[in-house]
Fold each of these.
Amino acid sequence: MKDLLKGRTKCLLVRPEFLTNTFYNLSDVYDLLGAKSAAPPLGLLIVAALLPKHWQLRFVDHDVTPLTEGDIDWADIVFVSGIGPQEETIMRVVRRAQAKGKLTVVGGSGACLQPQVYQDADFVVSGEGEDTIPELLDDLGKGATSGTYRSGNRANMKTTVTPRYDLAQLDKYLMVGVQYVRGCPFACEFCAQIEIFGRQPRTKTTQQVVSELQLLHDLGYRGQIDFGYDNLIGDPVHCAKVLEAMRDWAIRNDHPFFYSTEATINLAKDDKLLRLMRDNDFRYVFVGIESADDEVLEQTKKSQNTTVSPVQACKTFNSYGMTVQTGLILGFDSETDQTADNILKM
């Protein structure tokens, strides 16, 4: 067997397609908006940056370019990443690659939450890549042909790698993601993010953030950046410093980007952060309102939503130039026959 850690190993990184007629397949919408997909898969681009520098990398996002037999023939090893609803198409890629004698590695949030589902892959990686990918590479160097890697360790975001944005066709997407923070201090019981990244917010430095913006600028990208991840304001003090640095960078570079983000509803009470977001041209904010019933919110450990009127919060965000996108959930245990009506009346 070829020693994958020596020589110019050919590594194929794949995001498989989303099944048609499902929530995550919005191809018709993307066509109307002049794009192929929402955003490149940031996790896979981070993994690419963690791989040996001498490896040859090829990135295939099925939303943009279908995976061909030629792509698989070219590769020595195939990395596949996706979310839970992509289970079927992830394993479809695995079987295609294994039929040609290629080693396969499966990761992503799907494998983090349900690693057993992907056990037919040669390697399954569950946990943050900064901790698990080096273990995988070490075993590949020893000639391993299978393994499962699971780590609960949390990466130091101040030393993490810069994603390989250069591998993606950035002009084919509606937006590009920039990850500033992992982890959220709240404990919403239905949230997958705290299961993967924990409840202690870990942030990049202002210099890291500015450097990633500069890289995207230098690559020729202009337009929307989805900034933050998990909860933008998990560490509000540091967030303000980062937003100030972003504002100053934008002024020097003629404002090449506008932004979207995700935050908890208590952002509506922080005028300083809202002003900085307006200064940076944040146009969209996703806020999980979830329910209009305080009892439901308390039961699901989303009590932070009971301290702010969702209607007033949305008006506040609007006043700072942001469109609010929200999540609403029906099906919690303590709901009543009035719960749906209460949501409609909000």
Amino acid sequence: MEHRNSTVLSRTGHLAQVELSALGTVAHEFFHAWNIERIRPRSLEPFDFEAANVSQELWFGEGFTSYYDDLAMVRAGVIDLNEFTSRMASLINTVTNSPGRRFYSPIEMSMQAPFVDAAVSVDPQNRSNTFISYYTWGAALGLALDLAIRDRFPDKSLDDFMRETWVRFGKEFIPYEVGDLEDTLGDVVEDPAFAAEFFDTYVRGVYRDPAVPVPDYGRLLALAGFAFEDRADRPWVGNPGLEYGADGARVQAPIRIGSPLYDAGIEREDVIVSVDGTVLTDAGAWGRALARYRPGDRALVVWRSRGDEFEEQLVVGSDPNLSILPLEATGGTLSDSARAFRGRWLEAR
């Protein structure tokens, strides 16, 4: 837990077994010494220990810190380029594919912290469909903003923005609000319109149609010589949490909105009995059943719900997730400009 002038970290297990994870925690809490402990939102200052502190800024306080903990680790050589791009792909996939963007913006996600950050819900809830962690979404926004600044303003970066927030707010303990961050960005890049467009589009979610937009990560990452590799040829019906038994697979978590399983009408606590005759008694049976199909194929799914049995011709979808690869790993040639861009972004300081 981070404090104003110190941090206490503890881990279970042997450090040799959790070294990388532990170093990630150290990097995160180290950056907190500036961001959120000194560069502090008004909503958390002073902190109220008797009532919920509802904050609109955790996408920045926690999310940008999460972006910088990975960035610091790759710059320091603790993780390699492949590990860093894998982590960035995870961020992008989570935000891009989550139905949560249809319901709330990063600001509104931040305001739900009293309900999700170490909070426990007694009743069933559907947050896997309606919520994206402000850590994750904020980190993805930090990535996009860093690359966008470097693209539009070659002598600037997110590092300059963070330094200026320290000067304006952290150094003198002056609490900030969302609008202050927008103004600071506009001043750093000397382009208030750029700052307003980024905040309105991606932070406030003003232009939802029907979901809050995501930045063009493909174009931004290409500037540094990275390429997207899609999985569109892989079958996908959703990512259900299943508990297997002799009578089938019980759905343990909400089904993702828009997935083939959701469109078929399957819900949490339903038991999926079989897929085209293959009884789902274990994870291997589920994997073998899916492996027979290609995107666009139809599969007869039988399930039980509330005492009744149903069957439906489910349309197999395409895996929506992407991988990020260095261009040279795909057989492409890294241009001089992309090599220089990548170096300015990721090499040690």
Amino acid sequence: MSQSSGRVRVAVDAMGGDFAPGEIVKGAAAAARAGEAEVVLVGREDLVIEELQKQGVPLELMRLVNAADVIREGEPPAVAIRQKRQSSIVVGVKLIKSGEVDAFVSAGSSGAVAAAAATYLGMIPGMERPTIGGGFSSFAPNIVVMDLGANVDCKPHQLVSFAVAGTVYARTVYGIENPTVGVLSTGSEEGKGNDLVKEAFPLLKNSGLNFIGNVEGNDILTGKANVIVCDGFVGNVVLKFYESIGDRAKVWLMGKYPRVKGLVGYMFDRVLPIKKLSYEGEEEGSGILWGVDGVVRIAHGACKAEHIHHGINAARKAVKADIVGSLKREIALLKQQGKLQ
């Protein structure tokens, strides 16, 4: 944290996301004005300054770090971070390593952010791969799903490490002392599911975590388990489906009841905003990249200014809660007990 102000320093990838740099700069400026954190914008200096001037944001409000290159969606992450070392993602991650900032937020390529974080910050001992966790707090305020897309293919013991990260998440973010853990499967009985689930089950059972067994898709929002683990392929499909619910429900209701579609639109836009279903976890820790030795937050590629603002605040809270230190201590304890590989 800044020695002069005592505030958490958060670097923001100004070039990442579908609406960069405009919405990113706008959201970062809002967070800086609120005084929640010291915000550092990372990106092409000429484009960022142009955007700041266009929005009437004083240049002195935020520090600017030049990054001459941009990693685009679709570029192979491992290749991109090696070939584009002056990209906003790589430069931003390295600011954590050098101690210039406490956290990094990006709406850019998720794969590139994860690869850069793992490469330049390193992994916490006991965590082979980074994992993205998040919750669905509109309907289930005390659950977290791990992994939401960082790892398409996983090994059974890696699901255990995801469960450990999820347990720390539930404790530090939700304040749950002894979170329950379940593995997402096609049936509640032991022995149901694919090979990954079947092989992970006994490992989770003997992990020392509060493992309750398999949970099914219809259990996710009921809170049956506080921590639900799955591979990133399944987790990302679940996340994208969940995010679509608000918009699809609005369209369906407006078509079903055309005479009152104005009222339906008002209900969804004002009373129950669609963003509430898609981004309600922005300040609750969603999108944090667990397992790397630093606080890195991956924002939704389609996010707007308010989501960047919330994402900065989520990163600030993660630093304050010492999630990295908490995860290190939890893993060290389980290793000492011989319950984690």
Amino acid sequence: NNIFRARRTSGASTITMQVARALKPRDRTYVNKLIEVFRALQLEIRYSRPEILQMYLNLVPYGGNIEGVKSAAWIYFKKDPDHLSLAEITALSIIPNRPSSLVIGKHNDRIVQERNKWLQRFRDEGLYTEAEIADALDEPLTATRGKMPRYIPHLAQQLKKSGEVSITTTISMNMQSRLEKIVADYSAAHRLQQIKNAAVMVIDNRTHKVVAYIGSADFRDTIDAGQVNGVMAVRQPGSTLKPLVYALAIDEGLMTPKTMLEDVAVNYAGYAPENYDRQFNGPVAMDYALEHSLNIPAVRTLKLLGKEALVDKLSICGFRQITRDQRKLGLSMVLGGCGATLEELTGLYSVFA
């Protein structure tokens, strides 16, 4: 028909051919049309019809940079496709045929006219009840283009690296929303102390699943590095490795919680650790040293245990930076002289909880 009339008068692509074109767009030429036919045959051999229809619904154009029914439903109606009314889903169904001339928010009156034509056809064919059709015909179209929700943006970026099309998380949106507000309020309240950011990761100890993930106080903050993922950033862990050192010493039978440790000045080949307050407490029990986060007893314990034992255990637990740096790490690692991420530390502490 296009050849005889010397112009494009109508489309002649099947849904599978449209999927092939959407997967790899090409200029509209007769050669490329033949390529689309070949690609469509390959798709039909490889996938079932329901799978091809699902691909089409995920790729169907809605003008601009909007692709897929779900994206359009969220951008225009702020809801999942499953929750759309008959009038809304009908409106979305007619737009892909003319995505440039039927734009929600610009051509709503025109879209309503086309929508109602199809609703009348549904009535004539008895697809819906009279009441359902009447309600759909009376429903106004006031939608405009909105913004897509940006939930857990740092985790979304991290998961995107997997290359998977669909990823199911274990995030509790109720807890996530509450913690986002807490973190934002905390950062705002301590800004004068130069604390401008924070990161949080919460694990459910019963299931060991991540239920909250906050990489920064505000992802959109470009001044204070809001897009830096604090959960994955390598930082000095401070005293957070002390519980593991004492636990390993107990497992090896080297001490008990009541074993006395000397909190006095010590020097290991030029390395002389000090407590935070630069004071000495003399003989202290191991549980007291842990409770008060004393530095010297922790270093003494690591010396007794052996640095290699700690490094090996942390490597098994997935501490990537420590694994890379293991040859140059020393006794100071128990006081934070190494690199770890919040994700690694949270996973480690779920063992103790």
